[in-house]
Structures are given as C-alpha cells and as structure tokens.
Write a structure and sequence with these properties.
GO terms for molecular function: FAD binding; oxidoreductase activity, acting on paired donors, with incorporation or reduction of molecular oxygen, NAD(P)H as one donor, and incorporation of one atom of oxygen. Keywords: FAD, Flavoprotein, Monooxygenase, Oxidoreductase. Its cofactor is FAD. This protein has 503 residues and is α+β, with helices and mostly antiparallel strands. It folds into three domains: 279 residues, FAD/NAD(P)-binding domain, CATH 3.50.50; 82 residues, Alpha-Beta Plaits (2-Layer Sandwich); 99 residues, Glutaredoxin. Strands 1, 2, 8, 9, 10, 11, 19 and 20 form an eight-stranded mixed β-sheet that branches. A five-stranded antiparallel β-sheet has the order 14-15-16-13-17, covered by helices on one side. A four-stranded mixed β-sheet has the order 25-24-26-27, covered by helices on one side. A hairpin with a 5-residue loop joins β26 and β27. It is globular, with a radius of gyration of 24 Å.
C-alpha cells in the first residue's frame, strides 16, 4: 500500500480529516486537483459546535479576527443563541480560505502528505484496499491505500465512481454571491426580505462586503458562468441601489438543491462533508457539519488502520452522522421556505416569530442549528450525559492544579475523568492507557445547563462525546471495550471486577 488512507479534497472537511487521522497514527495522503489553495471567501463563519471542535484541537486560537456572536437567525427570523446556557451562535468574520490555510498548516505540521495538482478520475475497491486513478502533471497514475475518503464537494468524483446513491430534490432557485469593495452597502447581516427576493450584506476584511442576492423566479442555470454584472443588475432590481462601480474579487452562485447519500460507507470507500450531503447554506451549517463529519470519522478510521478498533466501530460513522445530516437537510429546507419564498409565507413567518419568542422554542432551534444538541445513540441511557458532547469547563485536578477540559482533547485520545481515587479505578483504566488518558480530579464540575446532573466519572471519546458516565451509566470496562477495543492487559480487568460487572 502507498498509504493507509487517501483523502480526496483539500477543503475544510478533507484537511480536518487528514489531521485527525494523523493524530490517530495513520499515514495520510491528501489528493487535491487545485494546484494551490483557493482564495475565495465562500463560508464566512461556523457554528458553535464547530467552534468547540476547533477549540478541542487547539485550533480556534490560530484564526485571526474570529468574532464570537450570540446573534443568529432561523430562516431570517432573529434568535439570541444566548438562550443556550453559556453558549453562542458561532463564529463570524473568518473567510473559508483562512480556515483552509490554518487547517493545511496544521495538517502539514502533523506529517500529512499533500498532492496538489492531482485529480482523481476513478476509484476501484479491491476488497483488501482501494486504488485511486489519478491524473497529474506527469500524466495518469494510480495510488493505493487501505481506505479512501471522498471529501471532494457536492459534485464529488469519488461519490460517482464508487456508486453511492444520492437521492434528494433538484434545485428550484439560484442565488448569487460576491465579495465587493468600492461601493456603499449598509449591513444586512441575516438577510433582508425585499419585494421579489432577499438580499444580505456582511462586512469582510480589507473593506470588502459579502453580498448574497436571491431574486424570486431566477431558475438555476448549470452551464452559465455568473458575472459581477449579473449580481449588480439583480441587486439593483431588488434594492434600487447601484453597485456597478464596485470591484468584485470573487463571484459565484449556489442553489437550494438538497441531497444526501444513503450510506456514508461502501466497503473501503467513505464520503464526508458536501460529498455526502448538499443543502441550502443557512446558518453556517455547511462547513460546520463537514468538519464534524471529519472529527467523528477520523479517530474511528485511524483506530481501524492501526489495529485496535473494536468490531463495528467504523460502521458507527454512518449510524451517527447520517441522522445528523438528514436533520440539517430538513432544517435548511425549512429555513429556505421561510426566507426565500416571498410574501406568500408572511403568515408563516409571523407565526414562527411568535413561537421563537418562547424560550423553549428558541432553545430547540438554537440547539439544532448550532449543533450543540446532537446526541448519538450509544445504547446506554442511565446517565443524562451519555451520547451528548462534553462542554468545556475548568477542572481541578487531584493535585490541586487546574486545566481546561478542551485542552485534554488536543491529542485526539479518549479521556477518562474521575473523582474516584480507588485502586479499582486505576487497575481498570490501566488496560486502555495506550488509548485513554486517566485524569483524576477533585470533582467533576457541572457544565452549562448541568447544575442538576450528578457526575462522578466520565469517559469522553476523541471527538468530544460522552461514552460513559457514573453514576448510572453502566459498567466502565464494557464502555471501554465497546469504544476502545480489547484491553492491552486483559489480566488487569477480570469479569468479577466491580467496575466491569454490575453489583
């Protein structure tokens, strides 16, 4: 094999996945058809859960001018995401090219091999590996690996050549985007409904403004290249303002097409990010869900190729992420109906505005769009934290020192945090010490919204989700075996052990 894993695509999803795989000990080659990084702004922020993911790898501080904001929206209807205790809507003011630059630098530091200027033109699953047919500067060649992951966008070559089913709905409208300078445009941060459409304007760096124009009745045109004149004409028709004298450094378009693969894995080929799901970009969820796909998959695939993964671990990638993707598709379609359907939905918008004013409704929608309410089905429901993400908090170690929980996740290993200082706990944890770090604390403090939850110990997966908690979460060793494989020293964990068997 040339490498353990080939990652096709050097966007945020592919680069995040490559870094995660390297943290897990896998050899990784990223294949990207572009000869250099894109300098297009595209996404200009990400959700609160994506911010937590970056923070959990020590990456959030690498992003300059990242602005954390509480103010967001659902379908253009404002929501204060501060209704989620201790949280926010997400991060604004960071163009996608800066995120890609940060992630590529991180991946290269970890030893990821980058192959730019190479386009994958075919994929062949050989049963015990995968072969990618690649067209490069010196002609056609082949790369082989144990697994291949398509992170190559909504028009994914990997998805097509590996015969993934991609059902959904075709585009019904086209929207224009541009980064414009040299004209006076007042901010319209969450989009402004105007007769016959919607417009948005968000300040960027260096005097540029990101604008989005949705003109009702504009059908999608696959083969037409959008120009700045098209954007400026539509802007003037909708607002009465002329921006024709401005300068655009980037012009593009997108649609409301909505599709999702029926399976995230076919044999030794997997897909993530836009290669697995496409939808209307609403609330910064596109980039964010792709990064979360990568962090869910990375440690599991690395465990598989390095040999310690328990049976079925890699299958949990589809089982956990497909429902999350389906839910994002639903909420973005709902937001598109609210924000892009003109006067016909004004009664619906009025009712939704009344509902969003109810705190419980605002919390529900905020948790949905931010990604903070994701809860994976882990089959154990004895403790309320199991399956949910473990929010950051300050921990007081048993020796009196303090540390942020997010910092413990930087190596992408399992973390067992416990106030149980017994010898039994030490012996049980020792069997997985090559995969799970044992952190003894004076107590496990509650996180945001957890004041009524009693937690004495918690086992956190590398992606930040809780795999086991005590009291009431079942036996520790069974959770360790389920998520981290067979103990290194099985003799340390006997079936009669009090942490293995229920009393």
């Amino acid at each position: 094999m040339d490498t353990d894993v080939i990652v096709v695509g050097a966007g945020p999803t592919g680069l995040m996945l490559a870094g995660e795989l390297r943290l897990g000990g896998a050899d990784v080659t990223v294949v990207e058809r572009r000869t250099e990084r894109s300098w297009e702004s595209r996404g200009i922020g990400f959700t609160a859960r994506a911010a937590e993911v970056f923070h959990g790898r020590g990456l959030l501080d690498r992003l300059e001018n990242a602005e954390i904001t509480r103010q967001g929206h659902f379908g253009g209807i404002p929501i204060d995401y501060g209704v989620l205790e201790g949280s926010h809507f997400g991060v604004r003011g960071v163009p996608q090219y800066k995120i890609e630059e940060m992630l590529e630098n991180w991946a290269r530091e970890l030893g990821v091999s980058m192959r730019r200027g190479f386009e994958v033109t075919g994929v062949r699953d050989t049963g015990d590996g995968v072969t990618a047919i690649v067209q490069g500067p010196d002609g056609r060649g082949e790369y082989s690996a144990r697994y291949l992951v398509g992170c190559d966008g909504g028009s994914s070559t990997v998805r097509k050549h590996a015969n993934f089913d991609f059902p959904g709905s075709d585009a019904t409208r086209e929207m224009y985007l541009a980064d414009v300078a040299g004209c006076d445009i007042h901010p319209r941060m969450i989009g402004e409904l105007v007769p016959n459409g919607m417009v948005m304007a968000a300040p960027l760096e260096e005097g540029y403004v990101r604008i989005i124009v949705c003109e009702n009745g504009t059908p999608p045109a696959k083969d037409r290249e959008v120009t700045f004149a098209d954007v400026a004409d539509a802007w003037q028709r909708l607002t009465g303002e002329s921006i024709h004298d401005g300068q655009a450094r980037w012009v593009s378009s997108f649609t409301d097409a909505t599709r999702q693969v029926t399976e995230y894995r076919r044999g030794r080929v997997l897909v993530a990010g836009d290669a697995a799901h496409i939808h209307l970009p609403a609330g910064g969820q596109g980039l964010s869900i792709g990064v979360q796909d990568a962090v869910n998959l990375g440690w599991k695939l690395a465990a598989t190729v390095t040999g310690w993964a328990p049976d079925g671990l890699l299958d949990t990638y589809h089982n956990e992420r497909h429902p999350v993707g389906a839910r994002v598709l639903r909420n973005t379609r709902a937001q598109g109906t609210l924000n892009l359907s003109g006067k016909s939905v004004e009664p619906l918008r009025a009712v939704m505005s009344e509902l969003i004013a109810i705190p419980d409704v605002a919390r529900h929608l905020s948790g949905m769009v931010s990604g903070l309410d994701i809860r994976y089905d882990m089959g154990e429901h004895g403790h309320p934290l199991v399956g949910a993400r473990m929010a950051d908090r300050e921990l007081e170690r048993a020796d009196g020192s303090t540390e942020q929980l997010a910092r413990l996740l930087h190596p992408a290993r399992g973390v067992l945090i416990t106030a149980d200082d017994s010898e039994e706990m030490s012996r049980c944890a020792a069997g997985w010490s090559d995969r799970v770090d044992l952190i003894r604390v004076a107590s496990v403090p509650p996180g945001p919204g957890e004041d009524r939850i009693v937690t004495e110990s918690v086992l956190i997966r590398p992606d930040g989700y809780v795999a086991w908690a005590a009291p009431g979460g079942g036996t520790l060793a069974s959770a360790l075996r389920r998520w981290f494989g067979v103990a290194r020293q099985a003799r340390d964990v006997q079936d009669s052990h009090p942490l293995v068997s229920a009393p």
